[in-house]
C-alpha cells in the first residue's frame, strides 16, 4: 500500500503530486481518464490557455481531449487501463479534494473513457460494432447478440481477463465471418459481446405483443438461437415460471459510435 501510494501521488520536481505514474494502458486496452471540466467557451481554439488556467492547482499532465465531436472538449488528467483500480480511484479522490481559494472546483470530477479498446489486428476494425453506423448509416439500429465472454462468477474482471475476452470475441467473429455470417464484436468495460446481422426498424414491430419480426431477423434467430456465455449455453427459467431452457439470442441496440 505504501508503494502504491508513492506511485500514484509521487511528488514531481515542483513538489506537486501526479496522477500519471500508475501503470499505463497496454496495447489494445481501453484508456480512461479523469474529466476535470469542459473547456470554457471561447477557449476551445486556445487549449493551452485552458490548461494553464488549472495546471497550478491540478499539477502536471492536464490535457484537452474531445472523444465526442458533438460535445465540448474536456480538460482531463491521468491515463488508466482500469477505471476501478486502486490507483485510479485514489487519483480521482485526490482530484476531487483539491481546494482553490477555499472551494473545491473539481468535486464533480469523473472517470471517462478516452479511447475504446482496439482489436488485435487493425483489419478487424471494420467488424467492431462501434463502427456499424458509420458503415451502414443511422438506419442500422439493432443487431442479434449470440454470445458474450465474461467472468462466470460475477467478480470484477482483471486486465488479463478483459484481454482474454477481447481475443476470444474477435476470434469468434473471424470464424463466423469465414462461415458467411455478418458478425461483429463489441468490447465493453467488463465483457466482450459477439453479434450477427444489422437490422433496422422495419425488422421488428415493438408495438404489439409478441413482437412481429421480419423474415431475415427470423432467419438469423434460427441460425443462432442461443446467447452463449464463453462458448457454452446458459440455462435459465423461461418466462412465466415454466421449464428451464437455454438462454435465447437477443436483439440489442447498435451504439452510436
Structure, explained:
This protein is of the alpha+beta class and 257 residues long. Helices cover 25% and strands 24% of the residues. The protein has 6 helices and 13 strands. The protein has helices spanning 2-8, 47-58, 86-96, 132-136, 159-178, 215-223, and strands spanning 31-38, 63-65, 74-80, 110-115, 142-149, 183-187, 192-199, 204-205, 212-213, 228-229, 235-237, 244-246, 250-253. A hairpin with an 8-residue loop joins strand 2 (63-65) and strand 3. The chain is elongated, with a radius of gyration of 22 Å. The model is unreliable at 1-16 (pLDDT under 50).
What is the total number of structural domains? 2
Structural class estimated from helices and strands: alpha+beta
- Helical region count? 6
How would the global form be characterised? elongated
Mean pLDDT: 87
The total count of strands amounts to: 13
Largest sheet: 5 strands, mixed
Percent of sequence in beta strands: 15-25%
Rounded to an integer in angstroms, the radius of gyration calculated over CA atoms is 22 Å
Distance between the termini: 38 Å
The helix content is 10-25%
| pLDDT < 50 stretches | 1-16
Order of helices and strands, N to C?
A: HEHEEHEHEHEEEEHEEEE
Amino acid at each position: 500500500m505504501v508503494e502504491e501510494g508513492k506511485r500514484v501521488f509521487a511528488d514531481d520536481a515542483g513538489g506537486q503530486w501526479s496522477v500519471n505514474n500508475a501503470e499505463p494502458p497496454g496495447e489494445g486496452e481501453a484508456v480512461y481518464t479523469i474529466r476535470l471540466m469542459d473547456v470554457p467557451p471561447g477557449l476551445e481554439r486556445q487549449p493551452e490557455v485552458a490548461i494553464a488556467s488549472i495546471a497550478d492547482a491540478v499539477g502536471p499532465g492536464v490535457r484537452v481531449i474531445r472523444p465526442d465531436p458533438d460535445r465540448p472538449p474536456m480538460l482531463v488528467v491521468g491515463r488508466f487501463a482500469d477505471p476501478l483500480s486502486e490507483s485510479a480511484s485514489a487519483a480521482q479522490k485526490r482530484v476531487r479534494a483539491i481546494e482553490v481559494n477555499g472551494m473545491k472546483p473539481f468535486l464533480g470530477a469523473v472517470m471517462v473513457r478516452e479511447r475504446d479498446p482496439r482489436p488485435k489486428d487493425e483489419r478487424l476494425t471494420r467488424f467492431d460494432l462501434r463502427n456499424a453506423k458509420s458503415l451502414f448509416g443511422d438506419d442500422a439500429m439493432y443487431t442479434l447478440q449470440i454470445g458474450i465472454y465474461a467472468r462466470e462468477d460475477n467478480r470484477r474482471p482483471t486486465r488479463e481477463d478483459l484481454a482474454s475476452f477481447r481475443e476470444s470475441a474477435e476470434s469468434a467473429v473471424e470464424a463466423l465471418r469465414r462461415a458467411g455470417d455478418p458478425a461483429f464484436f463489441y468490447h465493453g468495460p467488463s465483457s466482450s459481446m459477439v453479434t450477427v446481422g444489422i437490422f433496422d426498424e422495419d425488422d421488428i414491430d415493438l408495438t404489439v405483443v409478441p413482437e412481429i419480426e421480419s423474415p431475415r431477423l427470423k432467419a438469423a434467430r434460427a441460425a443462432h438461437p442461443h446467447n452463449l456465455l464463453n462458448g457454452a449455453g446458459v440455462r435459465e427459467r423461461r418466462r412465466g415460471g415454466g421449464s428451464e431452457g437455454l438462454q435465447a439470442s437477443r436483439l440489442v441496440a447498435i451504439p452510436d459510435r
